[in-house]
Amino acid sequence: MAGIDLAQALSAEQKDAIGAAFLAHHIVVFPEQSLTREQQFAFAANFGEVEAHGVHRGENKRYGVAHVMSNLGADGKPTFRVSKAANYHWHTDKPYHPAPPMLTTLYAVELPPSGGDTEFANMALAYAALPEETRRRIAGLRVVFRPAFDASRLAVDHPLVRTHPDTGRKSLYIGNHSSHILGLPEAEGAAFLGELLEHATQRQFVYVQRWQLGDLIMWDNRCLLHRAVANYEADKYRRVMHRSIVGGTVPF
Q1: Whether 43 contacts 35, CB under 8 Å
Q2: 159-196 burial by CB neighbour count: b if 16+ within 10 A, else e?
Q3: DSSP character at residue 35
Q4: Closest to 252 (Cα-Cα) out of 135, 116, 128, 98
Q5: What is the DSSP letter of 201?
Q6: How many helical (H) and strand (E) elements, i.e. helices and strands, does the chain have?
Q7: How far apart are CA 239 and CA 108, in angstroms?
Q8: Helices (H), 113-208
Q9: CA distances from 38 to 6, 45, 87, 116, 218 (A)
């Protein structure tokens, strides 16, 4: 959406327009922004309670600011890392929470000369494209989620077919943190989740965000998967993003 300065307080009309675009498209792009971390946090807070980050790791980061995501090492230099948690794997943010997030905002602060894209896969379109027989098979199934970066964490389970609380549309709820399906042998369930993920991330369901400096995007965690794309020299060029996550409700 062009013509909106997110550093300023939103009018009621602007907030309504953004909310409508968000529900219609699941991703909203705001180009040419200039935001502090506090201003990004304030924008996200228009849509719900912004979550603290890193609490489970005992981190004591400042609440009230967007947190930093980058490819920088402890020495401040670019480095290539593949995270078990998310990173280059298809995922939705924090599905291992009893009430996973509603939305995420991500703001481009530093970018490589080219590449460093983010891809999004629409799980509602993917669900609608499944054969009727498969939709019947998966109705009522529940998926077990546990952080891919920490096998010791307690698991939660959510519906494999999730209903959007605002639109009523059904979508697949899967991704990197899903381990197996309740009631099925673990290997069988994991293999089936892999098949569904392969179907759901076909190119016809995917949007690619080709970042420009100052872009801020917000996306719907309830019906999208996303992943970073390793299409730049991550050990040579800096990529720094700021992220805020807004809490959601228990999936049904």
Answers
A1: yes
A2: bbbbebeeeebbbbbbbbbbbbbeeeeeeebeebbeeb
A3: -
A4: 98
A5: T
A6: 5, 13
A7: 8
A8: 123-128, 132-138, 186-200
A9: 11, 11, 24, 24, 16
> 216: which 2 tokens?
């801020």
Please provide residue 200's backbone torsions phi and psi, each rounded to the nearest 5 degrees: -75, -20
**Cβ partners under 8 Å of residue 214, min gap 6:** 31, 32, 33, 34, 108
Q: Are 56 and 97 in contact (CB under 8 A)?
A: no
pLDDT at position 59 is: 54
**Amino acid letter, 247:** G
Report CA-CA distances (Å) from 29 to 123, 197, 244. 19, 25, 15
DSSP single-letter state for residue 72:
B
Q: Is the pLDDT of residue 58 over 80?
A: no
As a whole number of angstroms, the distance between CA 47 and CA 27 comes to 14
For 185-217, write each residue's pLDDT tens digit.
999 999 999 999 999 999 999 999 999 999 999
CB 4 within 8 A of CB 35: no
Q: How far apart are the first and last CA of the chain?
A: 30
Give the C-alpha distances (Å, rounded to integers) separating 44 from 33, 93, 207, 224: 14, 15, 22, 18
